[in-house]
Amino acid sequence: MPSGEIRLQPPPELDRSEGASGVMMNAIPMLGSLGSIVLVASMGAGGGGGRSYIAAGMFLFATLGFIVVQIDRQRKQRAQSVTGSRTEYLRYLSSVRAVARDAAAQQRRALTWQHPEPASLPALAEERSRVWERGATDPAFLHVRYGVCSQELALRLVPPDSAPIDQVDPAAASALHRLLVVHRNQPDLPASLDLRAFDRIEVCGAESTARALARALVCSATAFHSPEQLVVAVLAGERQLAHWDWVKWLPHAHSARVTDAVGPRRMVATSLDELAELLPPDLADRPRFGADERPAVPHVLLLLDGADLPPGNHVVPPDGLHGVTVLDLPARWDDLEDPTRLRLAVLDEPAAPGLVALEAVRVRETPVRARGDQCDLATAEAFARRLTALHTVTAGSGVPDDAAPLDLSGSTDFMELLGLGDVHAFDADAAWRPRPARDRLRVPIGVGEAGLPAHLDLKESAQQGMGPHGLVIGATGSGKSEFLRTLVLGLAMTHSPEQLNMVLVDFKGGATFAGMSDMPHVSAVITNLSQELTLVDRMQDALSGEMVRRQELLREAGNFASVRDYEKARAAGEDLAPLPSLFVVVDEFSEMLSAKPEFIDLFVAIGRLGRSLGIHLLLASQRLEEGRLRGLESHLSYRVGLRTFSAQESRAVLGVPDAYELPAVPGLGYLKPDPTTMQRFKAAYVSGPPSGRARVQRDEGGHVRGILPFTVASVRPLEQQPDVAPEPVAPRPTSDESLLDLAVRRMAGRGPAAHQVWLPPLEEPDTLDGLFGDLVEDPALGLHSPSWRALGGLTVPLGIVDRPREQRRDTLTVDLSGAAGHVAVVGGPRSGKSTLLRTIVASASLVTTPQESQFFVLDFGGGTFAPLARHPHVAGVGTRSEPDVVRRILAEVTGVVDRREAFFRDRGIDSIETYRARRREGRADDGFDDGFGDVFLVVDGWSTLRADFDDLEMEIQQLAGRGLTFGLHVVAGAARWSDFRAAMRDVFGTRLELRLGDHVDSEIDRRLAALVPTGRPGRGLVQSKLHFLGALPRIDGAGTGHDLGDGVEDLVTRVRAAWRGPAGPKLRLLPARIDLADVRRMAGAAEAPDAATGSQPGGGPLLLGVDEKELAPLGLDVDAEPHLLVLGDGQSGKSSLLRSYVREVVRTRGAAQAQVVVVDYRRSLLGEVPEEHLLQYLTSAQQATPALRDLAAYLEQRIPGPDVTPEQLRSRSWWQGAEVFLVVDDYDLVATAQSSPLAPLQPLLAQARDVGLHVVVARRSGGASRALYEPVIQTLRDLAMPGLLLSGSPDEGPLLGTLRPAPLPPGRGRLVTRDRGVETVQVAWSEPTA
Q1: Which regions of 1140-1217 does DSSP assign to beta strands (E)?
Q2: What is the largest CA-CA distance in the chain?
Q3: Structure confidence at residue 312 (pLDDT)
Q4: Strand pairing partners for 268?
Q5: Which pairs with CB-CB distance under 8 Å and at least 24 residues apart come from 1267-1271?
Q6: Is 597 helix (H, G, I), strand (E, B) or coil?
Q7: In whole angstroms, what is the distance from residue 215 CA to residue 1137 CA?
């Protein structure tokens, strides 16, 4: 309502006319001019008089012109001044007029809001938000509308104290007058009267119009004043009683003193004595009217129609009673004499529809002309019926006492509060019918003051709600959890899933929302977060993802600003999917924020954006810590305070300590919907069994028995028939099932399912048959997945990726055909590394054939790959206890890569993709096919590889750098990322990180790595920082891990049975023993000189065994590398190697070409060299020292002299004779600390090729680290001669380069050469000569 005043400025005054003074001012210069003219004329009278007269005439003409111009200028200046001031004043009045119009419109809106017309009262009662809103402190308390009339503008327009009318501008004064006339009084504004100002109000006129006006007065009074503040009673004649039957529905007309069979008596009577028994008992104690300034509660509105108050009665005396207003409809009336009375006289004049002309008359006051309201009987009854259910009067309560506790004794049966009847007969389709906008998201939560239902309205305040967000605080045992269950169930039972979805979160335990997951409204039930804090972050992602989803949906649907606009467009007929509101309830949020303080940011985001996105947030906790709701307080619209632990917590929630003072009764609390209102309530109870209902009894005719009429008269109870025994009521079978469970069961499966905001956490792993979905057996392809094979062959599923922000799960897919072909699986102990590696192997085998992919496995993880050794795709499995198999696997893989590299270079193949395509089409160039497809090297336990096979790690690293180009994929598992060298980590394009022992070691995200749950094998992170759960390597559909071994066996069996093609390549191992004859056959070499032709051998490499890389004969070219150093423990194969060596010398060279000198102190080579090839056989130092000295002297003669030509050097033709092969066994016995028989030959070792000397030294590896500095061995090392390291102890340290001895089978060794590096070989076995 506008207020204040505007003091209007006076109109401008007219400028005063100069009058005679102005004329005199102009006449003075004229007189001076005339004098000058006379002077000129008189002076010229003596001569030349003609010119003088002419001059005098010119002076006269100039003077008259000056006077005329001056008078005209003054007139124009005056007119211009008047016009300017008038325009400015009219502009000022225009601005005042605009302000007055705005004030008038605001005043009309305010009065129409305060005093609506009678026709709108039924809708107001139906909406309920404004019913009985006026309290004793309200300025409009007991003000009742009676019609409309002209009223003064609330913004007073104060006229100015202006000058007399003849001194002001008439146009401006007229405009001011019109402004005051038009705007000082506003027509047809709602008019009201104060019931407290009159002891009697007479409504005079025709019976029908007078009653319609009286009905309007009664309805207006009861609409905004509660039955505790206003009581309505009717005293009518018998003939007029039917016109007031509708009053029985008004709670204000129900007596608080007397009851009958149907409840409180209705205060409608034909006798004053009868009515006196029904009226409030304090009437007898009230003073006469006007004798007390204190308000009387309740105020009594007594309506008289066809009845009079007898003179001398003690109920309502003639001079009036304090707090009583008599509304009289007299049949005859005289002039008013009492100033405390008001007469509303209906005039016989035409008026607008729904209104009648009337005159409000008071003694010694000017009558007020108005147009009175008319309320028909149907409107009044419709209004009264809507008020009936809002209040229950308890007989005997009398006048409420301010010191007494509030009445919360109404029914708390939840189904009655909802008005849905018996829960056993609950019909979801009927209950979920579309609700009016005012009732949307509005639900009763219990019983409020005076037994009325207490409602919680989640709508925002702009829609007359309390929301959208709120707070609930209650101590242990206060009924907080029950309150939340009641609220959630009430919303679910009154709103369909198309209108409302819910996210229910319980940080501690899961009892609050237990059993509610079956409701179709529930988008998520999230419990036990305190036991697994990682789910808190997942929930944060899910809720923020829901906000993003709603924003995108609104934008894509038409760029709507809010869900409200979206729903309006949908209701208008646009083809839009339902977008229900989302109610998010978080129980124990305070403890959640203690564990995850950053979660407050999500709550603030929901508080800021939830209004437009249709998301409503309700936070509940036992305690409210100071500062916990930083930034969120301003978004919490309503507060609910149950019994709190302290008065401070109550003040923090409600602003008052009242919640702390509540009795220890669960469910009692205060609801604070806005900063100025607080109401007490008792929450309903839904966790117990529903209240029983008695059976409806019917008579023999089928009519219901026990239903009584509801009339204004007293109703008697039914009389029992003594001769008929009452029919026993069969009790409903008792059940422990709660009302909540019954209601949820009735709603389950009804309506559309809610959009799932929260998917269950990754708990149960999938199996490969579930991921593939279409495994079939094919004669040509075996057991495979057609759909996944069509993706390219090396795109395989490994598990499930959790995407909580997108509210979905995706299949974890890796593409091994490109840059992501190398895979690293890192995780702590028992995190599922080996299982995930087996999943990779099994998954790839289900999209390729054994000809297209092969797996070489280094199993250092405890033998988990042992069952897969029979798998058609697995070429070989090597364990830690099989170092020879491990090295053979790496040699085989290296050989494949080397052969392909050479082939690609020779054939111009640009990539492995081209090779794959040609191989699938059978177009391998020149028929090349090494039998291998994509080769996978699987290493389970990288730390073991570094510790026990450190030399192999660098080889794998080098292979990985170039392997993808030639179809090699390294799949490695490690406990830490630091187990890999930096260069090795860089080549892994696919990284799967399981639960780490220390999350600080994470290469993906340290914070997220700490959130990977413990005790969940297979859970981890992918490179996109999402959680995943690896699948189990089984295809039997069983997602259990305790019998995984049986599942793997089943997988291998089914794959083997389905594959009918040729077997894939398997690992070829070095034989434990290979005879020299077999090596010669493999090389195609002759056993002896050709006897038929008698030809002598012509030299060539010496065949000493087979290499591991190609399993091909190993030849030693003694022409290019004349010497050989052999180190090894006893029984490692040194003597066998020397036997093969000398036999190969004999095979490849005749006696004239080669002579053998054997230094063998133990005589292990005795008889191995034929006599024709044996130069000397030395068995002691006494024999060896002089013999080797002579040999050195002889060979010195072969040193080329100064006369040797370059041609002779190239062909070595400057000397003739046999080459000398010096074979020394057990050099540790030959070379002593004092001297070595081979010392004279040391200078010749570097010129061995020129002089024809070949030295083979075999020595024990024990103590070899010191013997390496012996002159002869040192010289061999300096010359980079080949070295063969057989089995030995690693404690000896590096012996040949960086190569350490290792325990090896007999005959197995590692050959170190300049051109081929380190090769593992199996030395050929030669039987000793008998």
Answers
A1: 1154-1160, 1174-1178
A2: 193
A3: 77
A4: 234
A5: 1267/1227, 1267/1228, 1267/1231, 1268/1295, 1270/1231, 1270/1236, 1271/1236, 1271/1239, 1271/1242
A6: helix
A7: 128
* Pairwise CA distance, residues 653 & 816, whole Å: 58
Say yes or no to pLDDT of 616 above 70.
yes
CA distances from 1014 to 528, 535, 717, 998 (A): 16, 13, 71, 12
Closest CA to 431 of 488, 519, 491: 491
Residue 446 vs residues 455, 679, 954: alpha-carbon distances, Å: 7, 12, 75
Instruction: Please give the pLDDT value at position 704.
Output: 56
Measured in Å, how far apart are the chain's first and last C-alpha atoms?
131
The pLDDT assigned to 847 comes to 93
Strand partners, 553: none
Half-sphere exposure in the Cβ direction for 1157 (13 Å, CA)? 23
Question: What does the pLDDT read at residue 627?
Answer: 72
Asked whether the beta carbons of 203 and 327 are under 8 A apart, the reply is yes
Rounded to 5 degrees, φ, ψ at 563 are -65, -30
- Per residue, the 3-state secondary structure of 19-71, as one string, reads CHHHHHHHHHHHHHHHHHHHHHHHHCCCCCHHHHHHHHHHHHHHHHHHHHHHH
List the beta bridge partners of residue 460. Answer: 467
Measured torsion, CA atoms of residues 899, 905, 907, 913, in degrees rounded to the nearest 10: 80
Return d(Cα 284, Cα 302) in angstroms, integer.
Answer: 15
Segment holding 990, helix H or strand E: strand 990-994
Tell me if 1137 sits within 8 A of 1103, measured CB to CB.
no
Dist CA 752 CA 682 (whole Å): 33
Catalogue the active-site residues.
588
- One DSSP character per residue, 199-213 reads SEEEEES-HHHHHHH
* Strand, helix or coil for residue 1224: strand
The set of residues, in sequence order, having a beta carbon less than 8 Å from that of 210 and lying 6+ positions away, is 203, 204, 329, 346
Q: How many helices (H) and strands (E) does the chain have?
A: 35, 48
How far, in Å, are 537, 1228, 1236 from residue 1269 at the CA level? 65, 13, 13
Per the rule left: phi > 0, alpha: psi between -120 and 50, beta: everything else, 1263 is: left
Q: Which amino acid is at 29?
A: P
Residue pair 364/348 in contact by the 8 Å Cβ criterion: no
Q: What whole-number distance in Å separates Cα of residue 315 and Cα of residue 278? A: 11
- State both tokens at 474: 């209650």
**Which CB contacts under 8 angstroms, 24+ apart, belong to 738-742?**
738/686, 738/687, 738/688, 738/689, 739/414, 739/415, 739/423, 739/686, 739/687, 739/688, 739/689, 739/690, 740/485, 740/489, 740/515, 740/516, 740/686, 740/687, 741/515, 742/423, 742/424, 742/426, 742/690
Beta bridge partners of 776: 784
pLDDT: which is higher, 837 or 1097: 837
> What is the Cα–Cα distance from 993 to 391, expressed in whole angstroms?
65
Identify residue 1202 by its one-letter amino acid code. Answer: P
User: φ and ψ at 1177, to 5 degrees?
Assistant: -125, 105
Total count of residues recorded for the chain: 1330
Query: Where does 1011-1129 show beta strands of DSSP type E?
Result: 1019-1021, 1027-1030, 1102-1107, 1113-1116, 1124-1127
Report, in this order, helix, strand and coil percent for the chain, each rounded to 5. Answer: 35, 20, 40
Half-sphere exposure of 536 (CA within 13 A, CB side): 26
Collect all residues with Cβ–Cβ distance below 8 Å to 242 and sequence separation of at least 6: none
Give pLDDT tens digits for 1079-1098.
999 888 876 554 444 445 66
- Amino acid code (one letter) for 763: E
626 Cα distance to chain centroid: 27
- Over residues 12-65, the pLDDT tens digits come to 877 655 444 555 565 666 666 666 666 666 665 555 567 777 777 777 777 777
